Amino acid sequence: MDAAPGGAPVRAVGQPDDQQDAAHSQAVTIAGVPSLRLFLALWPDDATRRSLARQQQEWGWPPGAALVPPEKLHVTLHFLGAVPATRLPALRPLLAVAGQSFELGAEGARTKVWPGGIAVLELAAPPALQELHAALATALRNQGFASELRAYRPHVTFARKATGARPPGAVRPFAWRCDGTWALVRSSPREGYQVVAVDALR
């Protein structure tokens, strides 16, 4: 995975310290928080994020559609839900999970509105992504966390409340180079998505 933007002193899976210091300006700590709503994700670099934002802009959106802000676009790997802060140490074994490099792009991708008005860019799942997803699922189950049992469908959510949205005729070419790493992300109703400082798990 290409890292999140920024400059906070955090440690990301599979990245040297000097790379991630330039990678996580939005990283947050977790001290004093009783529980966090967490998920694991592929977090795009700035160039990929701009490309995804252009894809998003080419849709015809109905009134009231809730577009995901460009800085929050991502691919979810596993959704953990509300995790008590006391259980965060159980996520430490996941720090050892990193996959092979792979690329996501327009080949095999398609735009679609899922039931419930969720507008997405569905992506093809290369073997290395499937292996990373499976390795993380195993690590989660080994630590007592639930993991998704349905077939994995990698996608970027562009909007919610988007019933009636008109997708573009074709997916614009793009290349998202992923290095096999991932981000731990907190979802907060007030603050949106924030990359969590992985050092907090140590």
From TrEMBL:
User: What residue ranges are annotated as transmembrane?
Assistant: none
The identity of this protein, by name, is RNA 2',3'-cyclic phosphodiesterase
Do you know which Gene3D superfamilies this protein is assigned to? Answer: Cyclic phosphodiesterase
Which gene name belongs to this protein? thpR
- Taxonomic path: Bacteria, Pseudomonadati, Pseudomonadota, Betaproteobacteria, Burkholderiales
Question: A Gene Ontology MF term for this entry?
Answer: RNA 2',3'-cyclic 3'-phosphodiesterase activity
The reaction(s) annotated as catalysed by this protein in its Swiss-Prot or TrEMBL entry are: a 3'-end 2',3'-cyclophospho-ribonucleotide-RNA + H2O = a 3'-end 2'-phospho-ribonucleotide-RNA + H(+)
Q: Which family does it belong to?
A: Belongs to the 2H phosphoesterase superfamily. ThpR family.
Motif HXTX 1 in this chain: where?
Answer: 74-77
Which residue ranges have biased composition labelled Low complexity?
1-14
Keyword set for this entry? Hydrolase
Q: Where, by residue number, is the motif HXTX 2? A: 155-158
Where do the record's region annotations for Disordered lie? 1-25
Judging by the UniProt lineage, the source's domain of life is: Bacteria
Q: Which InterPro entries match?
A: Cyclic_Pdiesterase (IPR009097), RNA_CPDase (IPR004175)
Q: Which PANTHER family match?
A: RNA 2',3'-CYCLIC PHOSPHODIESTERASE
Identify the catalytic residues: H74, H155
Q: What does this protein do?
A: Hydrolyzes RNA 2',3'-cyclic phosphodiester to an RNA 2'-phosphomonoester.
